[in-house]
Protein backbone atom coordinates (compact mmCIF):
# COMPACT_ATOMS: atom_id res chain seq x y z
CA UNK A 1 0.00 0.00 0.00
CA UNK A 2 1.39 3.38 -0.93
CA UNK A 3 1.42 6.32 1.44
CA UNK A 4 -1.09 8.30 -0.69
CA UNK A 5 -4.23 6.57 0.62
CA UNK A 6 -2.85 6.62 4.16
CA UNK A 7 -2.14 10.35 4.02
CA UNK A 8 -5.56 11.00 2.46
CA UNK A 9 -7.42 8.95 5.06
CA UNK A 10 -5.46 10.56 7.92
CA UNK A 11 -6.18 14.01 6.46
CA UNK A 12 -9.91 13.25 6.27
CA UNK A 13 -10.06 11.99 9.87
CA UNK A 14 -8.11 14.95 11.24
CA UNK A 15 -10.17 17.46 9.20
CA UNK A 16 -13.32 16.04 10.79
CA UNK A 17 -11.77 15.99 14.27
CA UNK A 18 -10.70 19.61 13.91
CA UNK A 19 -14.26 20.64 12.96
CA UNK A 20 -15.71 18.70 15.92
CA UNK A 21 -13.22 20.29 18.30
CA UNK A 22 -14.14 23.72 16.89
CA UNK A 23 -17.78 22.96 17.66
CA UNK A 24 -16.90 21.89 21.20
CA UNK A 25 -14.89 25.08 21.70
CA UNK A 26 -17.77 27.24 20.45
CA UNK A 27 -20.13 25.49 22.88
CA UNK A 28 -17.64 25.92 25.74
CA UNK A 29 -17.24 29.63 24.95
CA UNK A 30 -21.03 30.02 24.89
CA UNK A 31 -21.22 28.36 28.30
CA UNK A 32 -18.46 30.58 29.65
CA UNK A 33 -19.59 33.95 28.30
CA UNK A 34 -23.37 33.63 27.96
CA UNK A 35 -24.44 31.09 30.56
CA UNK A 36 -21.60 31.98 32.96
CA UNK A 37 -21.01 28.31 33.73
CA UNK A 38 -18.59 27.35 36.50
CA UNK A 39 -15.05 26.31 35.65
CA UNK A 40 -15.00 28.69 32.69
CA UNK A 41 -17.36 26.42 30.76
CA UNK A 42 -14.55 24.00 29.99
CA UNK A 43 -12.77 26.48 27.71
CA UNK A 44 -9.25 25.71 29.02
CA UNK A 45 -9.58 21.97 28.41
CA UNK A 46 -11.52 22.14 25.16
CA UNK A 47 -9.29 24.96 23.95
CA UNK A 48 -6.18 22.82 24.49
CA UNK A 49 -7.76 19.87 22.67
CA UNK A 50 -8.75 22.12 19.78
CA UNK A 51 -5.28 23.71 19.68
CA UNK A 52 -3.61 20.33 19.43
CA UNK A 53 -6.14 19.27 16.78
CA UNK A 54 -5.41 22.44 14.81
CA UNK A 55 -1.66 21.82 14.81
CA UNK A 56 -2.17 18.18 13.82
CA UNK A 57 -4.51 19.35 11.03
CA UNK A 58 -1.82 21.71 9.70
CA UNK A 59 0.77 18.93 9.76
CA UNK A 60 -1.58 16.43 8.10
CA UNK A 61 -2.43 18.99 5.42
CA UNK A 62 1.25 19.45 4.59
CA UNK A 63 1.76 15.67 4.59
CA UNK A 64 -1.23 15.15 2.28
CA UNK A 65 -0.14 18.03 0.03
CA UNK A 66 3.36 16.62 -0.41
CA UNK A 67 2.23 13.00 -0.76
CA UNK A 68 -0.71 13.72 -3.09
CA UNK A 69 1.14 16.48 -4.97
CA UNK A 70 -1.30 19.30 -4.37
CA UNK A 71 -0.40 22.66 -5.89
CA UNK A 72 0.91 25.43 -3.65
CA UNK A 73 -2.35 27.46 -3.89
CA UNK A 74 -4.40 24.37 -2.98
CA UNK A 75 -2.10 23.67 -0.05
CA UNK A 76 -2.37 27.25 1.20
CA UNK A 77 -6.18 27.11 0.97
CA UNK A 78 -6.08 23.83 2.91
CA UNK A 79 -3.96 25.40 5.62
CA UNK A 80 -6.20 28.47 5.79
CA UNK A 81 -9.27 26.21 6.01
CA UNK A 82 -8.30 25.41 9.58
CA UNK A 83 -9.02 28.95 10.72
CA UNK A 84 -12.78 29.42 10.21
CA UNK A 85 -15.13 27.01 11.98
CA UNK A 86 -15.94 23.98 9.80
CA UNK A 87 -13.58 25.16 7.05
CA UNK A 88 -11.66 21.90 7.26
CA UNK A 89 -14.73 19.84 6.39
CA UNK A 90 -15.65 22.16 3.51
CA UNK A 91 -12.11 21.90 2.13
CA UNK A 92 -12.00 18.13 2.59
CA UNK A 93 -15.32 17.69 0.75
CA UNK A 94 -14.12 19.95 -2.06
CA UNK A 95 -10.93 17.94 -2.46
CA UNK A 96 -12.90 14.70 -2.49
CA UNK A 97 -15.23 16.01 -5.22
CA UNK A 98 -12.24 17.19 -7.29
CA UNK A 99 -10.65 13.76 -7.04
CA UNK A 100 -7.64 15.11 -5.16
CA UNK A 101 -8.10 12.48 -2.45
CA UNK A 102 -7.50 8.91 -3.69
CA UNK A 103 -10.30 6.42 -4.12
CA UNK A 104 -10.85 4.18 -1.15
CA UNK A 105 -10.57 6.98 1.40
CA UNK A 106 -14.21 8.00 1.15
CA UNK A 107 -16.61 7.13 3.92
CA UNK A 108 -18.56 4.02 3.21
CA UNK A 109 -22.30 4.52 2.72
CA UNK A 110 -24.57 3.12 5.39
CA UNK A 111 -25.84 -0.37 4.82
CA UNK A 112 -29.41 -0.53 3.52
CA UNK A 113 -32.03 -1.13 6.19
CA UNK A 114 -33.47 -4.59 6.35
CA UNK A 115 -37.13 -4.76 6.75
Automatic annotation (TrEMBL):
Transmembrane regions: 12-31, 43-66, 72-91
GO cellular component labels: plasma membrane
Localisation per UniProt entry: Cell membrane
Domain of life: Bacteria
Residue ranges of every copy of the DUF3817 domain listed in the record: 9-96
UniProt keyword Transmembrane helix present: yes
Membrane topology: Multi-pass membrane protein
Database matches in InterPro entries: DUF3817_TM (IPR023845)
Keywords: Cell membrane, Membrane, Transmembrane, Transmembrane helix
NCBIfam families noted in UniProt: integ_memb_HG
Protein name in the entry: Integral membrane protein
Organism annotation: Kineococcus radiotolerans
Source taxonomy: Bacteria, Bacillati, Actinomycetota, Actinomycetes, Kineosporiales
